[in-house]
Fold this sequence. Notes:
The protein is mostly helical. It is extended and about 80 Å long. Helix 2 packs antiparallel against helix 3 and helix 5 packs across helix 6 (105-122). Helices cover 49% and strands 0% of the residues. Among the domains are: 2-76, no CATH class; 88-146.
Amino acid sequence: MLLHEMQIQHPTAIMIARTATAQDDETGDGTTSAVLFTGELLKYAERVIGDGVHPRTVADGFDLAKTRALEFLDTFKIAGPEGGMYPRETLLSVAKTALRTKLVPEMADQLADIVTDAVLCVHQPGQPIDLHMVERMHMLHRTDKDSRLVKGLVLDHGARHPDMPKLLENAYILTCNVSLEYEKSEVNASMVFSTAGERDR
């Protein structure tokens, strides 16, 4: 997030940046809306303070509004299923809401389907979702329209030999946690020469 990286000096701007950072840390989305909403609140606060209202009264009004907003959200929210996952339609709606603010609708809808199915693939009942089980790969020779979910392992290396088979059935699979790539070893060495007289000193 850009606001998090900026070196801001103005106290009000620092407060707005912290609001956006807290929003991003909590939900991962909605930072632009949080900044715009905060800016509008400050604009109207400046207007009423200019009319003679004490700043303490404005702050109390913000606290009252926050309380009322939270009470409304408690009646408006949808309770999640006990120990389970939301229906796919609900997750898809959330994904579309987040992505359509950043991408064109066609691309957002395509990616919303992909990310929803990816989360459902790695979800295990009763356990938190491990998003490290989902990997995003950049295919430089493809376009954004070619984005798709592969429910398995993707190796972007191609065949090692033209005679390698394209399809195998009932194959034995080796899994290991070491690299099978040939890597040239890197040795950094230096030679230091000195005369016998320098060594004696």
